[in-house]
Amino acid sequence: MRRLVGRLVVVVIAAPAGFLPAAADDLFVGSSSSHQVLQYQGEDGEPVGPFCAVANPVGLAFQPLKTRGGSSGDLFVGSASSHVVQRFDGETGELIAAFCSVANPGDLIFGSGGDLYVLSLSSHQVLRYDGQTGESIGPFCTVSNPSGLVFRPLKRSGADAGDLFVCSASSHQVQQFDGQTGDSLGVFCSVANPRGLIFGPTGDLFVASASSHQVLRFDGSTGESLGAFCSIANPSDLAFGSDGHLYVASQSSHHVEVFDGQTGSPLGMFCTVANPGWLVFREETPPCPADMNGDGVVDVIEVLLLLDAWGQCEDCAADINGDGIVDTDDLLSVLAAWGACD
Fold it and tell me: Which one of 52, 175, 310, 311 counts the least CB within 10 Å of its CB?
C-alpha cells in the first residue's frame, strides 16, 4: 500500500453527465443474406429483430462507452457494397450518416485512443480514422489479404500491451504490429485460412480457422499453439460474452453456437442467422464506474483510491476508462460523477 502524504484538495467542477446506459449483453450479428444487422437478447438468444439495414454488412464495432471525450456507444458497420463505414444510433439503430469511405472494407475496431481502424481488402491495409470526425489519418499497417483484426487488451501487463493483431488469409498467419506506430513485429502464429480472432479472458488468443473448421487457441504471450479449442463448420467471427463463454458464427449451419469458455465443450445453438458474418456484444456498462467502493456515492474515498493506484494498473477498479493507466482522464471521470451515484 502506498502512503499518501500531504494535504488533499478536491475541486468539484461542472462536467457532462455520466456514461450512456446500454442494453446489457445483447448480441448483434451481420447477415449478408438479409443485408441487416440483427439483434438477439444476450440471456437467451431470442430475436429482438433487425437493428439496422446495411448493404452487405462487414465488420461491426460499438464505439466504447468508457472512452472520455464524446464517445456515444453508436454502432459502426462496414458496407462492402457501398464502400463506406456507416454510423447508427446505438440505442435506436437509426442511421446517423456515412462515417468514412473505405475501398472494400472488412473488419473494423476502435483503438484505445478512440480512433477507428478498418481493414481495406482492396489496398491490403489497415486504415485509421479519427473516431469522432471520420477524418482519414492514413494507413496504419500493410497486410496481404487481411481478414480480421483485434487489439491486445491494454490491461495486460508488458511492453506488447495494446498491440494490433491482424489475420492474413494469403499467408495463413496472424501478424503482430506495434499498437502505437503500426511497425511490423513479425508473425505471431500460423492458422489455415484465418477469419475472426479475439483475446480470451485469460489472455490467450482464439482464431477461427475456416479450413480446419475449428477455433484454435494460442498462448497470448508467445503465440505457441495450444491446440484446437472447439470444432464448428466454417467459422467466421467469434466473441466472448460476459458469461465467459465463446460465441462463434457458423456460415455453414447459419447459426451462432456457444462453447464453454474454459473447456471448449459445446453448449448448443444460441441463435439462427442467415449467412452470419461479423458479430459483437453490446456490453453492460456499470451505472457508475467511478463508484469504486460500491457505496453509492462518489466522494473523497474514490479520489484516495485513485491516487493510491496512480500509474500503470492492470485490471483495477481505479482504471475507469480501461486504458491500463490510472491518470488524469480517470480523475476527471471521478469529478464528473461526484455525489450520489444513480
Answer: 311
